[in-house]
Fold:
Amino acid sequence: MNVHILEMPLDFGASRHGSDMGPSAIRLAGLKEKLESLGHATYVHTDIIKFTAQEYEKPGNPKAKYLKPIVKACNRLASEVEIITSEGDFPLVLGGDHSVVLGSLAGLSATAKKQGKKIGVLYVDAHGDFNTAETSPTGNIHGECLAASAGLGLSELTNLYFEGQKVEPENICFVGSRDLDPGEKLLMKQAGVTVFTMSDIDRQGFAQVVGKVVDFFKKVDIIHVSFDMDVLDPMFAPGTGIPLPGGLTNREALLLMEEIAGTGKVCSAEIVEVNPILDLRNQTAILAVSLAARLLGEKLY
Structure:
């Protein structure tokens, strides 16, 4: 397979800086070499976005901070993703913060519309990212990005790259959620997304939840995997912007990637929120490489 590694050092969507260095940390952890060892041809895109550092920009709308540079960057990413997926290749986006999903999904959705395919999204994240400007307690766009992709929120975000919804909410499946704001929780229930929280995992067991996730995606043609490293317990991934105890183990996350890869439907992905400033010996970035490898076909035996 041709895998295009798209580096998006964008951290305008979050309050805590450092995730802009995530792509380089994952690169240094050996991503390209790992994927090539699996037989993939890799193409690295390091010049997708160029902008002034966040410290020199004005936040603008307090309910959607740094809206203009985020929209500009994600429009550029969407164009790249559309080109790559139209050719049948695999885009692997490295964040940056989770606002990059706006571009990933817009580009994939544009291709899906041309090909008449239905998109499903596996959103592996401790958070919902399903706020709008009206419900967001922070105004950080990384907490509004998935709602916007599902058609909820500011028009600048919902109509990014092309006008209208990028994914139907009933085709979105969350795994590992454990920190949802009251407003976004209500929006998620109203929209009809499927959520497997950490409590669900504790009650049912991880293997059973993974089986349900795989079954969930039988109704779609293609899958986008959006993986936020903060879904993992800080014991395994300390280098992330919002570390929360009680998350997935490394083994659970690797199994999930291997099982969703087994559907044969995954055609794009992103790994976000690696923050080297907070990491220990690049531990989080090294795990990100392992997750990408499992998603792209690596098996233990």
Summary: The chain has one domain: 2-295. The radius of gyration is 17 Å.
